Structure to design on (184 residues):
């Protein structure tokens, strides 16, 4: 079913002259799947004229921590989280899925622009279908999500509500010959 399912996707995010710089954080635990996710993410970012760096971490649980560390550097406008968790014989699957997702969500709620491309699947075949850049392209989808959040963040940051205090730079200086300059 997943192979024939179709979904609506937003048009690519558009940016002015200041193209975003993203960090792709990838866990190559299942290297072939991770490589396909990475291929899709790189293509989606490049299609907007944006740039990216790539770092690798051991597993999906380390992805949120790596993003938090990178966010502190101030070098990146957004992040793409990539990896794959395939259900095994133990409950470790639930821990990795839930905790990696929770970590990314908490960062997102703090204003970090993240596209989550960590696959959580029942078997390898599901992962292969979702990771294939010519198929479901979940890596590209995660990059697109990050780019859309960056565009949205820039839109909201540039808006003002027209109330509150004026910044000191907006105060008018009136020259008074007797007492010197005065703020209006």
């Amino acid at each position: 079913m997943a192979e024939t399912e179709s979904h609506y996707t937003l048009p690519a995010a558009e940016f002015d002259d200041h193209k975003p710089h993203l960090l792709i954080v990838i866990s190559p635990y299942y290297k072939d799947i991770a490589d396909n996710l990475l291929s899709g993410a790189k293509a989606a970012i490049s299609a907007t004229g944006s740039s990216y760096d790539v770092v690798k971490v051991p597993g999906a649980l380390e992805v949120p921590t790596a993003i938090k560390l990178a966010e502190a550097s101030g070098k990146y406008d957004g992040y793409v989280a990539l990896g794959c968790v395939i259900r095994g014989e133990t409950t470790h699957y639930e821990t990795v899925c839930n905790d990696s997702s929770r970590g990314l969500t908490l960062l997102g709620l703090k204003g970090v622009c993240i596209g989550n491309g960590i696959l959580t699947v029942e078997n390898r075949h599901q992962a292969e279908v979702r990771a294939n850049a010519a198929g479901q392209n979940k890596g590209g989808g995660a990059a697109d999500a990050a780019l859309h959040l960056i565009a949205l963040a820039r839109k909201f940051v540039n808006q003002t509500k027209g109330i509150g205090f004026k910044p000191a730079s907006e105060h008018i200086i009136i020259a008074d010959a007797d007492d010197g300059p005065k703020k209006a």
Summary: The longest helix spans residues 138-157. Strands lie at 21-26, 51-56, 78-86, 114-121, 173-174, 182-183. The first strand starts at residue 21 and ends at 26. Residues 68 and 107 are 7 Å apart (CA to CA).
